[in-house]
């Protein structure tokens, strides 16, 4: 069976399926054999008893700590667990339909939720959360109590999941997770970006992979074409093995470019930096020939932990990156939490539109305690290399100035304490919100540099959620609006004499490189894995011809025509 999704991380993987159940418990329709029915009913009843014990223990603990008034809420949970109608319904379905207890239990719970939400009575509406709570407890126990930790896998697998959060992905080890495939997601989601950084082939937005694939199925993930094949025939496996070998050969060829400059045929040299999420990626960035870090997504340091990293911890991490990259520059982006990256312990409330919500610099300006700690750590580390600070999600000059005000407070505090730091550090803005792009002329008077974040710029300009696979077809870097915004930003920067680079995924795609060169960008920052590939394209064109092409493209009205133009030119130049 072949499923088509969105290719997010290149490479081909052939491996055994490992179905990952997230906290929202996406459970496949597992069937049981006729002779297993009795055992399955027993298992189900045992789990109900076990869950009952857990709730009683919790009730006792709460009663001791905060009084029985609060612990009484669990009486409703116990009533649900003891409900003979519910037990009867599930045992009956196990007998008749022969699905696993967890699959049936989840379905029945969902039906209860639906039925309760239709009753126009506050009492019943309030009971929905009780049902959900008990449902989760029972499911967790039916599934074996533990949520599988991606960091502790025993053998190499391909992970199949409804969704993966960026923090789930950050836990993956390449030796154990050979690839992953998910039901939902988009190409520029942080999960996708993380997969590329870790060099784990991946396809997302497959819609029903968690229903179609079973544990231990053989799966081919084609991260180049966005295709996943479940239990492929032997001749298909052979074909993919051959392609994998060819890929390897191409990668070996690319290695030759690692230490060559990203120089066009007429002598223009593009600065090529790496995007990193964790300090450990510095090794691969250097190996791939990066001339610095153009985007260090520091928020990854804050994920997967129960407390915020201290100033000292952050300082050590930033210092390490600064030292290892020296004499090349490192652009440290201040915390960009929110959107699709959350910390459970930071009290960031669930929002209807998290990408339009309390995210990045907005969060930092509201939480100067968190922001100042990070700025202090960066400033202290600036003594050990060439660091630059970049603020994410700047929407206009006010925010940029507010952030700078906090920065200068921190600088003063350090001066008072006689702690040295680089006083000439460049402070820049990410241009990833249309309002910032359209007022780039104003921002350019304050900022020392710009870095265009196309991942968000496209999502905000075209109103296309970057993680939603259903509207992924609208996520289009070739839209004339995007090209005009990039042009506006480059011209504003040039007028004020500041440098402008790009760190969004648009410059990781070879097809856009001639156009971006022609538009006048002077620095690209891409995942380490893509450095040589992008260099190859840069080395195959002349700046002069790309400028002519860019002019022609800017005169085109339709996405289709822009795509066609780029495609034709791209095919013309020997790669
Ligand atoms: C961007 O938005 O283009 C960007 C580089 O930042 P992030 O992907 O982390 O939002
Ligand atoms: Mg962004």
In short:
The protein is α/β, with parallel strands linked by helices and 575 residues long. Helix content is 48%, strand content 14%. It folds into three domains: 2-22 and 149-233, Glucose Oxidase, domain 1 (3-Layer(bba) Sandwich), CATH 3.50.30.10; 34-143, Enzyme I, Chain A, domain 2 (Orthogonal Bundle); 258-572, TIM Barrel (Alpha-Beta Barrel), CATH 3.20.20.60.
CATH-level-4 superfamily name of the largest domain: Phosphoenolpyruvate-binding domains
Total beta-strand segments: 17
Low-confidence stretches: none
CATH class of the largest domain, please?
A: Alpha Beta
Biggest sheet strand line-up: 1-8-7-3-4-5-6-2
Class by helix and strand content? alpha/beta
Average the pLDDT over all residues and give the rounded result. Answer: 90
> How many whole angstroms does the radius of gyration measure?
26 Å
Could you say what the CATH topology of the largest domain is called? TIM Barrel
Which CATH architecture of the largest domain is right? Alpha-Beta Barrel
Helical segment count: 23
Instruction: Characterize the overall form.
Output: globular
Jot down its keywords:
globular, binds magnesium ion, Enzyme I, Chain A, domain 2, eight-stranded parallel β-barrel, 14% strand, alpha/beta, Glucose Oxidase, domain 1, 575 residues, TIM Barrel, binds phosphoenolpyruvate
């Amino acid at each position: 069976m072949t499923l088509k999704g969105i290719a997010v991380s290149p490479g081909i993987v052939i491996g055994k399926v490992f179905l990952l159940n997230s906290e929202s418990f996406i459970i496949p329709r597992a069937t049981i054999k006729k002779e297993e029915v009795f055992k399955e009913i027993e298992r189900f009843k045992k789990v109900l008893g076990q869950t009952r014990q857990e709730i009683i223990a919790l009730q006792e603990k709460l009663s001791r700590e905060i009084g029985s008034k609060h612990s009484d809420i669990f009486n409703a949970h116990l009533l649900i667990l003891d409900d003979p109608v519910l037990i009867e319904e599930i045992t009956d379905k196990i007998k008749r339909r022969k699905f696993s207890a967890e699959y049936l239990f989840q379905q029945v719970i969902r039906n209860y939720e639906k039925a309760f939400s239709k009753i126009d009575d506050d009492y019943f509406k309030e009971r929905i959360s009780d049902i959900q709570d008990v449902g989760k407890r029972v499911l967790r126990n039916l599934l074996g109590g533990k949520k599988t930790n991606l960091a502790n896998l025993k053998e190499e697998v391909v992970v199949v999941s409804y969704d993966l959060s960026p923090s789930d992905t950050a836990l993956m080890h390449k030796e154990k997770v050979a690839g992953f495939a998910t039901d939902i997601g988009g190409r520029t989601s942080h999960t996708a970006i993380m997969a590329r950084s870790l060099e784990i082939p991946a396809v997302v937005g497959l819609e029903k992979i968690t229903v179609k694939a079973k544990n231990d199925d053989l799966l081919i993930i084609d991260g180049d074409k966005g295709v996943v094949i479940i239990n492929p025939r032997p001749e298909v496996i052979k074909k993919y093995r051959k392609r994998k070998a060819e890929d390897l050969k191409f990668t070996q060829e690319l290695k030759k470019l690692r230490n060559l400059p990203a120089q066009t045929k007429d002598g223009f040299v593009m600065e090529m930096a790496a995007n990193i999420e964790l300090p450990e990626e510095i090794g691969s960035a250097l190996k791939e020939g990066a001339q610095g870090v153009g985007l260090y997504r520091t928020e990854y340091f804050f994920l997967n932990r129960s407390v915020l990293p201290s100033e000292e911890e952050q300082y050590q991490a930033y210092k390490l990156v600064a030292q290892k990259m020296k004499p090349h520059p490192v652009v440290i982006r201040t915390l960009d939490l929110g959107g699709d990256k959350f910390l459970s312990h930071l009290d960031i409330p669930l929002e209807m539109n998290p990408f339009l919500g309390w995210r990045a610099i907005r969060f930092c300006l509201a939480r100067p305690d968190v922001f100042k700690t990070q700025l202090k750590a960066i400033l202290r580390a600036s003594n050990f290399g060439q660091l630059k600070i970049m603020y994410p999600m700047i929407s206009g000059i006010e925010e940029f100035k507010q952030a700078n005000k906090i920065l200068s407070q921190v600088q003063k505090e350090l001066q008072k304490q006689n702690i040295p730091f680089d006083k000439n550090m460049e402070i820049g803005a990410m241009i990833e919100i249309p309002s910032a792009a359209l007022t780039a002329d104003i921002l350019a008077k304050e900022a020392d540099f710009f870095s265009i974040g196309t991942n968000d710029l496209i999502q905000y300009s075209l109103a296309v959620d970057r993680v939603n696979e259903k509207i992924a077809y609208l996520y289009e870097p070739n839209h004339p609006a995007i090209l005009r915004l990039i042009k506006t930003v480059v011209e504003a920067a040039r007028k004020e004499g500041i440098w402008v680079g790009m760190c969004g995924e648009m410059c990781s795609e070879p097809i856009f490189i001639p156009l971006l060169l022609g538009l006048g960008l002077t620095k690209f920052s891409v995942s380490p894995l893509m450095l040589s590939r992008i260099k190859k394209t840069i080395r195959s064109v002349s700046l002069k011809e790309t400028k002519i092409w860019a002019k022609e493209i800017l005169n085109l009205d339709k996405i289709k025509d822009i795509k066609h133009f780029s495609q034709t030119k791209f095919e013309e130049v020997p790669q």
